[in-house]
Amino acid sequence: MKDFWSMGGYGLYVWGSYAVCAAVMLLEPWLARQRQRRALQAAARPIDEEI
């Protein structure tokens, strides 16, 4: 089992890569939802026509 986790000496790189990938996959939908909310709020605001 120890060999599985150490991955021939590359375990830190491999598991670190998995952790970063998982974090990005969890973070991106949350950030996209925030961007969508901001865009919808901006679209709902009245437009100033003082030009």
Automatic annotation (TrEMBL):
Signal sequence extent: none
Positions of transmembrane segments: 12-31
Top-level taxon in the UniProt lineage: Bacteria
Membrane topology: Single-pass membrane protein
The UniProt record lists the keyword Disulfide bond: no
Location in the cell: Cell inner membrane
InterPro entries given in the database record: Haem_export_protD_CcmD (IPR007078)
Keywords attached to this entry: Cell inner membrane, Cell membrane, Cytochrome c-type biogenesis, Membrane, Transmembrane, Transmembrane helix, Transport
Function according to Swiss-Prot or TrEMBL: Required for the export of heme to the periplasm for the biogenesis of c-type cytochromes.
Family: Belongs to the CcmD/CycX/HelD family.
Protein's recorded name: Heme exporter protein D
